[in-house]
Structure formats: C-alpha cells, structure tokens
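Hi support team,

I submitted a single chain yesterday and got back a structure, but I'm not sure I'm reading the token output correctly. Could someone confirm the output below corresponds to the sequence I sent? I've pasted both exactly as they appear in my results page.

Thanks,
R.
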Amino acid sequence: MWAWVIGVIVIVLLVMLFSMISRKKYYTKIDELDMRKQGIVSASIPKELQDLKQLPMAGETETKFSSWHQAWEELLTVHVAQIDETLYRAEEALDKYRFIAVKNDLEVTEQLIAELEGLIDEMLVEMSTFKTNQSVLAELKAQGEADSGQVRKSLLIQANSFGPALARLEERSEQIDAHWNEMCQYEASGEVTKAYETSLLLEQEVATTRQLVELVPKQWKILAHELRQRIDQLGAGYKEMSLDGYPLEPLGLQSEIKRFEEQRLSLSEKIERLEVDGLEEAIQQLSADVDQMYDTFRREVDARHQVKKENQSLKQKALRMRERIRQLAQEFSILREKYEISADLGIHYETIQRDEELLFEAAKDLDESIAGKIIPFSMLEDQMRDAIRLEEQLMIQYERFTVELQALRKEETEVRERIVAWRHQLSQTRLRLKRLGLPNLPTEVEEALRNANRSLQTLETRLEELPFNVRSIVAQSQDVQETFKHVQERLDTLVFEVTYAERLVQYANRYRRHDNEIHMSLTIAETKFLAGDYERTIVLAERVLNEYDPDAIERIKRSCAPEETLHV
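Hi R., thanks for writing in. Yes, this is the structure output for that exact sequence:
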C-alpha cells in the first residue's frame, strides 16, 4: 500500500520537475527569439533609406528606393507583428503546459526570423552596392572622358604609325565615345546600375585600345619597314650570289624567302584586323627565321672561301700521298720477296691502299663539284672536313707503317751485326786458346765451340733463305746468344782451372823432396795436367799443400780468379 503511494508521489514529482525544466527552456528560447526580433527592428535600413532619399529620385533610383521602402514597411507591419503575436501565443500556451503547441510555434517563428534576417542582409548589401556605384559614377565619368580624349589624341599624333590598323582603331575610339555618352545618359536618367556597368565596359575598351595603341606601332614598324627591307635584301642577295656562282637552289632558300614575305603580309593583315593574340611572338619568330637565313648566306660565303682555299691544298696532299703510296708499294713488294710478312702488317698495308683511293676520289669529287657549281659550298665544306680528316688519318697510318718496315730492317741488321760479332768472338776464342798453349783441350769445351759454330751457321743459313721470318730469326738469334754465353762461361772456367792447376803444381813442387809419396802425387798431378784432367790435378796439388802450407791455396786461388779470361 505504502509502496504504491510512494510510487505515485515519485511520478508526480518527476512530472513536475520535467514541466519546470521544459518551461524554463522554452522561456529562454522565447527571450532569444524576442532579442533577434529586436535586432531586426533596429536594423540600419531606415538610415540607409534616408541616405538614398537624398539622391535624385528618377529612374532606377526611384524604383529601387520605393521597392526597399515598401519591403521594410511590410516587414515591420506584417512580419514583425506576426512574430509578436506568435511569441505571445507561445507564452500563453506555456502557462497552460501545452508544450507541443509551444514547440511548433517557436519553430515557425525561428524560421521566419531567419528569413527576415537574410532579407535584411540582402537589402543592406544591395543598398551599399547601389550607393557605392552612385558615388564612383562621377569619378568614372571624368576618367572615361579623359581616357577617351587621350585615345583620340594618340590616334591623331601617331596616325602614320598605325598603318592599315588606323581605321579600326578610330572605330574603337568612336566606340569608346559612344560608351561614355551612354554612361552619361544612364546617370542622368538615374539608371545607376546600367551606368556603372557601362563604365566597366568603357574601362575595358579603353584598356584594350591603349594596349593596341602601344603595340601596333612597334609591330607595324617591324613588319612594314625592318622585316620588309631585310626580306628584300635577302631576295637581292640570293640573286646576286646565284649570279656569282653560288649553287643555292638545293638549299631551298628562294622558297623560304617567298614564304617569309607571305608570312609578313599575313601578319600585316592581322594587324589591320587588330588580331594581336600571338602577334608579337609570330613576328619575333619570323625575325629569327630571317636572321637564320642571313647566317645561312654568311655561312655559304665563308664556306666558299674555305673550300676553295683548302681544295688546292687537298689536291696537292692527295697527289703527294699517291706518290708516297706508289713508292711504298714498290718497297713493300721488295720486302715481300725478302721477308715473311705478318697478316696484321698485310692488313695494315691494304687499309692504307684503300684509304688512299678514298682520299684521291674525295679530292677529285670535291674539285669536280666546285667546278660544276651544283652542290652548295656549306655541304662541300662538310665533305672537305671529312677529306682533310681522312688525309690526316692516312698520314698517321703511313708513318706508322713506315716505322714498322724500318723495325723489320733494323731487326735484320741487328741480327747480322751480331753474327759478325759472334764470328769474331769465335775467332778470338780459338786464337786465345792457341796462345795459351794448353796441353789438351777438354771434350766438353770442344763440343761447346762446335755447337756455337753450328748454331751460328744455321742462323746464317736461315738469313739466306728468302723470304724469311724476321721474328723467327730474332728468336733464333737469342738462342745463339745463349749458346755463346754458355761457351764463354765454360771457357772462363777452363782458363781458371788451367791457371790454378798450373800454379798449384808449381808451388807444390818445392815440397817434392820431403817425401816419396808427395813426389809420386805431384808426378801424377803433372801427368793429369798434360792429359787435360785439370780437376784431378787441382785435387792432388791441394792435398799436398794442405799438408805443408794450407794458406797458399787461398792465395793462389785469389791470384788466378780475375786474371785469365777469354772475354772478347
């Protein structure tokens, strides 16, 4: 029972609390909307209307003033009254706790207030724009009059500078005057917006015309005078150079000159029609093309001078080179009979012959082309450079090939000189051995001398067999040199052994009588010496001296080592 009562009390309290909160929220919303309404009522539109009322009431000014005044009166008498009524009705409904009705009325009122605020802002912007346009009209009118007069003055002073474009520019000047007069008429009739829009058109027309007045004289001067004169000079220069023997037709210069003149006339027509978009760039490009053709003519003149100058020199060089190659062919033919020519050397010779033919043909073609006057000199100059480069490369190849041939002869000469030296060395060696009076010559020494003589004879035989391979001969001569080096070393050893053995025996003979065994050893040593067994002689003699005078061995060895050699 008590729980039910408490529940009812809680529900009642919650309903009362919700009602209090909702009423407070809606009262706050009503106050907010009332403040916004007061903002609408206190807008500055009456002040703006009062300012507009000071203007001459005619035409657009009168129409707009009436429209804005009527809209403001309607806003105050109808819409603001409607807002007051709705807010009052909402307060009464709120006192009766009719929250749904209050909510609907407030939403409609808020939407209406937002629309009125937007309408007021729009009216204020329109009024401000209208007042601004009205305030600047006098300045625009004066500026337009000054600009129109300045354009007419420029056209009058520079009338001769505009060429065929003068008529169009005068039409534009008349159009400027027409815009200015139209603006004045609109202003006088109170059509502020139309007058302002016309002033903008006038300003744009003046700016465009000023640009044309500045641009046209410069470009017309270039087209009508500078480029025309230069193109005429190109045509006259073409005729004069053609009569002077310049083959210019393959370069297509005449058609280019004609194209230049056609393009100049086309650009002149554009100036007459005041079609200036891209005009300056087109004139600059035409001027650059004309400059390039001047460069082409200068290049032809320079090329003619250079080609004729180099042609005589090239012909002489080609003839001298042909004579050199002819002599080289004779020399190479002789060398082929004497030497085995390597494949690389043969290819090098064939390359020289082929390049010489190319050089001679190039010089001949250039001479004929110059005489025939068919090919432009600038093209011949490129051919001349190629021919000169070919001649320089051919000269390098010729000199290199000559060095290679000289190397073959030099190697052969060196080998023959070595053979003479080796023959002399053999002769001197035999003479020296004979003078030494050796009792017996060792077999290995005799064999070494025979091998040296045999290898030398083989080398001489190879030199007599034609054609011979120089590289192989040089390699074989190096083998012979090694053989003679071995002979020399063996002979040096032999001389040392003979001298050393002889002096050992001579020194050891002083001890012969000390002992019968020593006497026998020295006798055997002398026998071995006479038999040519010098090593055994040295062993027997050193054995005797080791017993009586060991230091003598080193003294005798030092005295023998450097003295007796067979070096030639």
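A quick pointer for reading it: The chain is about 85% helix and 0% strand. Let us know if anything else looks off.

Best,
Support desk
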